From TrEMBL:
Name of the protein in its database record: Simple sugar transport system permease protein
Stretches that traverse the bilayer: 31-54, 61-83, 89-107, 142-158, 188-207, 213-232, 239-256, 262-283
Species: Roseateles oligotrophus
Membrane association type: Multi-pass membrane protein
Location(s), subcellular: Cell membrane
Domain of life: Bacteria
Length: 306
């Protein structure tokens, strides 16, 4: 039971970085923009966050720096696809490749570096509860922050006027433009907000979750977060649940190895990606269900005045 509690705790932590990135991509896609550059943004943010933490000793400043790096890269992407009308899919892939290369080049000097001792967090009183305390109440504050952020995004999208406008832009930018809303600026704001959350996820990996810097350390989590938005049918609550599910599958490999289960380590390492492919295949078999939930103008360019 104690090992199971540790598995749940690790799953929540692993799921947090997926939830943060996927919520950012959800905001993008609700505005009608597909950003395939999550992997690159997370890698650059991870490198920037680690470098900031190494030089300043401040985890909070490192997370903010990671958010800034993600937002800056997203702003570049937004300029290309919103104002210059480049292909969203090609620009996103280019951003991902650029982020991988740039983070590897700029992060060379930090490969062998280590951060200072990590602070331990727990909720007084609750952390001492048998099993539940170990599983739920000894997490980094950002783990609980992801839960709060999920509720905040859901409220924003479905209970606020600004969220209604954002969804309207994703459904029919022409109609929103006819009503006088600045569609391009709204889309850019959504893209930058999404980039900031992807940056926060990347910095969380290198500063809190690992903590170290290694080239390519995001290891496909940006792509899993992208798939997660479709898996969750663009709903914040489902994103959080899906992130924890993927987090559980990710950590299960280490749990099974620790228990001495005789399964090839290569197969266990495949589990998160195998789960991603399986889920996408199952969802794709119900195309009508996807179309009913997907923003109508997702991935489609908008030309004011045309």
């Amino acid at each position: 039971m104690e090992s199971f509690a540790l598995l749940i705790a690790a799953s929540l932590s692993a799921g947090t970085l997926l939830a943060l990135a996927a919520l950012g991509l959800l905001i993008n896609e609700r505005a009608g923009i597909v950003n395939l550059g999550a992997e690159g943004m997370m890698l650059v943010a991870a490198m920037v966050g680690f470098a900031t933490a190494f030089h300043t000793g401040s985890d909070a400043l490192a997370l903010v720096a990671g958010m800034g790096a993600g937002a800056l890269m997203a702003a570049l992407f937004g300029l290309l696809v919103i104002w210059l009308n480049t292909n969203q899919y090609a620009a996103g892939l280019a951003l991902s490749l650029f982020g991988a290369g740039f983070s590897a080049f700029a992060g060379i000097r930090y490969t062998q570096e280590k951060l200072g001792p990590r602070a331990l967090f727990e909720i007084p009183g609750l952390a001492d509860v048998p099993l539940l305390g170990q599983a739920l109440f000894k997490q980094h504050p950002l783990v609980y922050g992801a839960m709060f952020l999920t509720a905040a995004v859901a409220w924003f999208l479905y209970r606020s006027r600004a969220g209604l406008v954002l969804r309207a832009v994703g459904e029919s930018p022409e109609s929103a433009h006819a009503l006088g809303y600045p569609v391009r600026r709204i889309r850019l704001a959504a893209v930058m907000a999404g980039g900031a959350l992807c940056g926060l996820a990347g910095a969380y990996v290198s500063v809190i979750y690992t903590p170290l810097w290694v080239e390519g350390m995001i290891a496909g989590k940006g792509w899993i977060a992208l798939a997660l938005t479709t898996f969750a049918t663009w709903r914040p609550g489902r994103i959080l649940a899906g992130a924890y599910l993927f987090g559980f599958v990710t950590m299960l490999q280490f749990h099974l190895q620790g228990q001495g289960v005789a399964i090839a380590s290569q197969f266990l390492s495949m589990l998160p990606y195998l789960a991603t492919i399986t889920v996408l295949v199952l969802i794709s078999s119900k195309a009508s269900f996807i179309r009913a939930n997907m923003p109508a103008s997702l991935g489609k360019p908008f030309f004011p005045g045309s």
